Amino acid sequence: MTPATTFAGKKVALFGLGGSGLATVQALKAGGADVIAWDDSPESAERARQQGITVADLREADWSGFSSLVLAPGVPLTHPEPHWTVGLAKAAGVEIIGDIEIYCRERAAHAPDAPFVAITGTNGKSTTTALIAHVLASAGYDVQMGGNIGTAILSLQPPSRERIHVVELSTFQIDLTPSLKPSAGVLLNLTPDHLDRHGTMENYAAIKERVVQSADLAIVGVDDAYCEAIAGRRSGPMIRVHVEGHGQAQAELIARDAKVFEGGTVLADLDGIGSLRGAHNWQNAAVAAAAVRAFGVEGERLAAGLKSFPGLAHRMEQVGRRGRVLFVNDSKATNADSTEKALTAFRDIHWIVGGKAKEGGITPLVPLFDRVAHAYLIGASSDAFAQTLDGRVPYTLCGTLDVATQKAAEAAAASEAAEPVVLLSPACASYDQFRNFEIRGDRFRELVRALG
């Protein structure tokens, strides 16, 4: 835990008692703060009470005594409209912050030189965060990984000059962190996302920009117009990363053909690393290489770290082989943009697709249909997806994941391809048949293992 000593003696309001909220309360209390917490969910509030946390409805509180409101990142700050706690805090002149801001204040107060790598972007944040942390840890560094990737930042060990914090940040977290100033700030890419919470793409991009704007070293993927413009505005030290084939950007690091180049020199070779297949992962690896080199990790140590990276569950996760057939769990792909990455990375694909469809369905993927040997349709989207596939890709209406996995495995085993791939990349939300994408991916993994 990182005790929030900079809040000692202060009275703090906190809204949102999920995992990060509970961790924040404990850190504030350990640092000497008086915390009054609340959550609109009666179950969450009761769970907090059982842990000895002071829980009271903040609508009835005296806000004049609070120094800060700590807001959970899932709670609207601005759009579609501010949460009611935001209005109360602003009316009382109370600052509104998040748990990342508390960490930043602890770092500034006690270990301002502590290494802090902050990673953001629309796609690839979690993989890049995990990859940077893995390479650094495999090189022998004391690494703490958290933030949006799943572990609350204040649950981690405190900042120290001998310890590297590698932290994934969402826009919601960045928006609640006014003093953000990482050692290295990473911005991977920007495409429209969460606009219901940010209003416009310009607002969304401006929030993301703060990660690299304030960093000692900025690492920016420059393959989209928004990131290229952000890189153009950066005045301090910066490394630009470009994936060849994505525009004509000038950059210090170039990723192409499963390799990362610096000038004419191969900095990293990704060929044969199953967890880093596909051009999107070449960008992730190039950015990670730039980040870890800032801490002296290169050459053989970089190569060994990349090679041993296991990847993340449900993100193009290789869950098994059966003879020549490779089984890949990409359940995290809940829209066409995410599935595009997987279809680009493989050929001879037996594609398990479907669920609760997003706007546009799989129509954006038509240019990649030549990579698909057969599609196996599951879930509520089946009829609509069948219309898109009709005349372009052979398909089978399977209904459930169990049936689709069995049929895909049988067909792939009979294929004459060198490495047929059974790919679960649904391009859909899961909640027509599964509570979340993790449960869907776990079920696929179980089904593959049951095949032998």
Characterise the protein shown here.
The protein is globular, with a radius of gyration of 23 Å. The longest helix has 15 residues, at 279-293. 35% of the residues lie in helices and 22% in strands. It starts with 10 loop residues before the first strand and ends with a helix. The chain has 452 residues and is an alpha/beta fold. The protein has three domains: 5-97, NAD(P)-binding Rossmann-like Domain (Rossmann fold, 3-Layer(aba) Sandwich); 101-307, Mur-like, catalytic domain (UDP-N-acetylmuramoyl-L-alanine:D-glutamate ligase); 317-451, Protein-Tyrosine Phosphatase, Chain A, CATH 3.90.190. It has a nine-stranded mixed beta sheet, sandwiched between helices. It has a six-stranded mixed beta sheet with strand order 14-15-20-16-18-19, with helices on both faces. Helix 5 (125-138) packs across helix 11 (299-307) and helix 14 packs across helix 15. It catalyses: UDP-N-acetyl-alpha-D-muramoyl-L-alanine + D-glutamate + ATP = UDP-N-acetyl-alpha-D-muramoyl-L-alanyl-D-glutamate + ADP + phosphate + H(+).
